[in-house]
């Protein structure tokens, strides 16, 4: 996912963290860090990943 965010030029650097729980289909936690290089808000990127 992080490489796609960088390839789409939403950020120059990106780290994506996903946390899953057994028996839950969706991730229980999504965190995105663009290290200050983002061209769009990290909240917008999180909603796009969801």
From TrEMBL:
Entry EC number(s): 2.5.1.6
GO molecular function: ATP binding; metal ion binding; methionine adenosyltransferase activity
GO biological process: one-carbon metabolic process; S-adenosylmethionine biosynthetic process
Chain ranges of the S-adenosylmethionine synthetase C-terminal domain: 1-49
InterPro entries tied to this protein: S-AdoMet_synt_C, S-AdoMet_synthetase, S-AdoMet_synthetase_sfam
Keywords, comma-separated and alphabetical: ATP-binding, Magnesium, Metal-binding, Nucleotide-binding, One-carbon metabolism, Potassium, Transferase
Pfam families: S-AdoMet_synt_C
PANTHER family per record: S-ADENOSYLMETHIONINE SYNTHETASE
Name of the featured protein: Methionine adenosyltransferase
Lineage: Bacteria, Bacillati, Bacillota, Bacilli, Bacillales
């Amino acid at each position: 996912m992080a490489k796609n965010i960088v390839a789409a030029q939403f950020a120059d650097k990106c780290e994506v963290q996903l946390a899953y729980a057994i028996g839950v289909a969706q991730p229980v936690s999504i965190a995105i860090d663009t290290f200050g290089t983002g061209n769009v808000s990290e909240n917008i990127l999180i909603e796009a990943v969801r």
